[in-house]
Amino acid sequence: MAPLKLAIVGAGPSSFYVASRLLSLLPRSGSHASSLKIHLYDRLWAPYGLVRYGVAPDHPEVKNCTHKFDEAATDPRLRFFGNVNVGPTSPLSHALPLSLEEFLPYYTHVLYSTGCTVPILHSALPPSQYCVPALSMVHWYTQHPSKPSPPPLERTSHVTLIGQGNVSLDVARMLLTPPDHLAKYDVPTPVLDVLRRSTVQHVSIVGRRGPLQAAFTTKELREMMNLPDSSMVPLDPALLAPPEGSTLTRQQSRTLQLLQKGSKNKPGTTKKTWSLDFFRSPTGLTTPTSPTDKARLTLAHTMLDPSSRVVPTGESSTLETDLVITSLGHRSEPSVPWYDPALGHLRTVSGRVISPDGRVVRNVYASGWAAMGARGVLASTMMDAYAVTDTILRDHFPGEDVQTTAGGAPVSAADEAAAMDAVEVLPKEVDLDAIPPQVEEGLKEGRVTDFEAWRKVNAEEIRRGEEMGKERERMGWEEAREFLAKVRTPVS
Ligand SMILES: Cc1cc2nc3c(=O)[nH]c(=O)nc-3n(C[C@H](O)[C@H](O)[C@H](O)COP(=O)(O)OP(=O)(O)OC[C@H]3O[C@@H](n4cnc5c(N)ncnc54)[C@H](O)[C@@H]3O)c2cc1C
Ligand SMILES: NC(=O)c1ccc[n+]([C@@H]2O[C@H](COP(=O)([O-])OP(=O)(O)OC[C@H]3O[C@@H](n4cnc5c(N)ncnc54)[C@H](OP(=O)(O)O)[C@@H]3O)[C@@H](O)[C@H]2O)c1
């Protein structure tokens, strides 16, 4: 069989779902086994992408997917190289830079699972000390290697979140949950220290549309309703009545029920409050002129026109706030090859990457948020990854009965025509075991991590956490590198 030596750029959940499915569909002992190799590269030193550096700490059950990833990593056909940035620009100075020219000649197949790592900003709200993207908050409380500064919570009483998606609710929950409740989870000690000094009293969660169009899901809304010591500010009853003659989805009915329940709260009964400010869209932020002043956020009032588009009503209001956090979604990095600026991610058909001139790039694929945009939970990321795996297998074994179940794209006449006219960027023959010499060197120096190194750090983080009565105590890269140098088995 022709070799299938696959490099996956990114080691988030999508990457691991593709890898584990490939490994299980081409078992170690089968006829296709010996010529399969999978190399996962991530610019972060630790694997799992947003599962480690995104999922909120008080959702530990979500991270159980890593058991499946760890199992895949026991297969000797899979290797992980952490701290390697593939491509021209890296936001992380300690990651080893590896250009495409240095990387592509080693692989017959490449999969981009690079996610959507860039927060979408609001044109009226440039980042400043008073306005930060939600991703910086997420990176702060997960101790992401980009190391954003901690938010100034000790001098903040009012926070405004722009956007009403689940990331927005994650951040609101982290700000309003009593730190003692968070202490048992995977919240790094320096983060807990800042949260303990926090003076946040109110979080406004601003959306340009109404309750029926909100992007958050009911589970996350319910968690907000159940926060101890915090309550929702009652909503205007007009917002809680379903429009006449409308048929609501299950999600919409549940949302309205929850909001109706929350609107029965008696003001002043809890120490902290939060509000959902519907039909408001920011138009500007005036920063304070003295340290005792607040910033002033101007909000245009909005409504939906008959085609459900957001339009201004002509009215506006001002909200005094200490910190604005924009949570408007994410896009891929424009430096990812074959990035389509119109989409904000790579252009693909059934997982196959498409070049700007509309041709298939042979044996180059994309999965997860890099291919779909920043939409969807882990379950949908998994389903997409399985479908892309099926496409890879069908392209590699045309006409062969490699058993697939996720319903990936069949090879149609159009596919075959596209494949004949494909852009060629990868070699057909490679040394199955070779890796770029820079990566080899990085492994020796301890700058590049492998899965074994991650296993050791993981066990140590859990051990430290147990001593402190919590899920784990995280290490940053410098600490992990020092720890790994100490426990490294000397090469004889
Ligand atoms: C804050 C947040 C919280 C979430 N919480 C939940 C939740 O509770 N439950 C749920 O089901 N879903 C949740 N999601 C959604 C879930 O995280 C995504 O569905 C999933 O992570 C997408 O997987 P991915 O592999 O495509 O991308 P990612 O997880 O982003 O992985 C991409 C990886 O690629 C790496 N990378 C990028 N560029 C390069 C490069 N040039 N070289 C090397 N490596 C590179 C990145 O470092 C990263 O590790 C959340 C999303 C966010 C943003
Ligand atoms: N617990 C979980 O399961 C969990 C946690 C976090 C994330 N996730 C998933 O991850 C994905 C991404 O979540 P997300 O919260 O980052 O994104 P999201 O769900 O797309 O929400 C983005 C929010 O920003 C608003 N917005 C976008 N552009 C705007 C603009 N110009 N002006 C005003 N508002 C604007 C959107 O409003 P409109 O709707 O009006 O466009 C929406 O309220 C989602 O699929 C989410 O479910 C899941």
TrEMBL record:
The keyword Flavoprotein applies. GO terms for molecular function: oxidoreductase activity. The keyword rRNA processing does not apply. One of its GO terms (cellular component) is mitochondrion. Keywords: FAD, Flavoprotein, Mitochondrion, NADP, Oxidoreductase. Its main location: mitochondrion. FAD binds at residues 14, 50, 86, 369. Its EC number is 1.18.1.6. It is an enzyme of class 1 (oxidoreductase). Its cofactor is FAD. It comes from the Eukaryota. It is found in: Mitochondrion. SUPFAM superfamilies: Nucleotide-binding domain (SSF51971). InterPro entries: FAD/NAD-bd_sf, Ferredox_Rdtase, Ferredox_Rdtase_adrenod. This is NADPH:adrenodoxin oxidoreductase, mitochondrial. NADP(+) binds at residues 164-167, 208-209, 220, 376. It catalyses: 2 reduced [adrenodoxin] + NADP(+) + H(+) = 2 oxidized [adrenodoxin] + NADPH. Belongs to the ferredoxin--NADP reductase type 1 family. It comes from Lentinus brumalis.
